[in-house]
């Protein structure tokens, strides 16, 4: 992780937003998601917009067709045992149509983003439509 930490950067504002999102969503009643991207020139990882998405369909509509993104997702669900769980995961959105340079840029930052955001799990998705079945991937009751 040391080499990634030297290559990619987070502003203090972004670090504060990551922490605030992680702490603020643990008791949320609805799904909460924010989209992060890497600036190709400065290699800074930052939130792509100031919006927090609570609708999975809106989130899917915002994901670009040809560019990867990191999506932090807090998703309340009921486990098969009946208990409520709120998994906090990193969705690594990597469309098959993106070019190899961008693909490598995001692949190199994946573990740094995972560790910095303090997520419990990374789920890789290649198309926005996969968000429709995210509850099954998180292990919730159908």
Description:
This protein has 142 residues and is α+β, with helices and mostly antiparallel strands. It contains 5 helices and 7 strands. The radius of gyration is 15 Å and the shape is globular. Helix content is 35%, strand content 22%.
List the helices and strands and how they pair.
Blueprint: H1 2-7, H2 12-24, E1 32-38, E2 45-47, H3 56-62, E3 69-74, E4 77-78, E5 84-85, E6 88-93, H4 100-117, E7 121-125, H5 134-138
Parallel strand pairs: 6-7
Antiparallel strand pairs: 1-2, 1-3, 3-6, 4-5
Search tags:
alpha+beta, single chain, 5 helices, two-stranded antiparallel ribbon, five-stranded mixed β-sheet, 142 residues
- Secondary-structure element order, as H and E? HHEEHEEEEHEH
Structural class: alpha+beta
End-to-end Cα distance:
37 Å
The parts where pLDDT drops under 50 for at least 5 residues are: none
Biggest sheet: strands side by side, in what order?
2-1-3-6-7
Q: Can you tell me the overall shape? A: globular
Radius of gyration: 15 Å
Q: What is the number of E strands? A: 7
Sheet with most strands: 5 strands, mixed
Concise overview:
It contains 5 helices and 7 strands.
